[in-house]
Design a protein that fits this description.
The protein has about 120 residues and is an alpha+beta fold. It is built from three helices and five strands; from the N terminus they run ββαβααββ. The chain has a five-stranded mixed beta sheet. The N and C termini lie far apart (about 45 Å). The structure holds FE2/S2 (inorganic) cluster. The site of FE2/S2 (inorganic) cluster has 13 residues, from loops.
C-alpha cells in the first residue's frame, strides 16, 4: 500500500513559495517542522495553543470545508498579527486528502526586523 501524498503549497513571510508532499493526519505545524520550511518563529509553543505564531491564511474554498474553529483557537487567533477571515492556527489544522493542491500563506511580517536574517 503506497502512502497517498497530499500536495500543499506554503508561501512564507518573504513571499517564497514551497511545495510539499505530505501524508494525511499531520498538522500543518508538523509539516513545517518535518519539512524544515523556512518560516521564522513558526510554532513557538509546539502546538499547545499558547501562541499565534502558527497563524496561516487559507483560500476561502478550503477554509470553508475545514472543521470549525474552537474557542481556544479563536482566542489565540485574536492576538495574531494580520488576522483575516480565513485565518487558522496551523497546529490545529490536520492535513486531509481533500486539501490536495491547497495553498497556505504565512502573514507577511511588517514589524521591525529584530535579529533579522541576512545580517550575518
Ligand atoms: Fe502555538 Fe499553534 S504553535 S498555537
Amino acid at each position: 500500500l503506497s502512502e497517498e501524498k497530499v500536495i500543499i503549497h506554503f508561501i512564507n513571510q518573504d513571499g517564497i513559495r514551497t511545495t510539499t508532499a505530505v501524508t494525511e493526519g499531520q498538522t500543518l505545524l508538523d509539516v513545517v517542522v518535518n519539512k524544515n520550511l523556512d518560516i521564522s518563529g513558526f510554532g513557538a509553543c509546539e502546538g499547545t495553543l499558547a501562541c499565534s505564531t502558527c497563524h496561516l491564511i487559507f483560500d476561502k474554498t478550503f477554509y470553508e470545508k475545514m472543521e470549525p474553529t474552537v474557542d481556544e483557537e479563536m482566542d489565540m487567533l485574536d492576538l495574531a498579527y494580520g488576522l483575516t477571515k480565513t485565518s487558522r492556527l496551523g497546529c490545529q489544522v490536520t492535513v486531509q486528502k481533500w486539501m490536495d493542491g491547497m495553498t497556505v500563506q504565512v502573514p507577511q511580517e511588517v514589524r521591525d526586523a529584530v535579529g533579522s536574517k541576512g545580517s550575518q
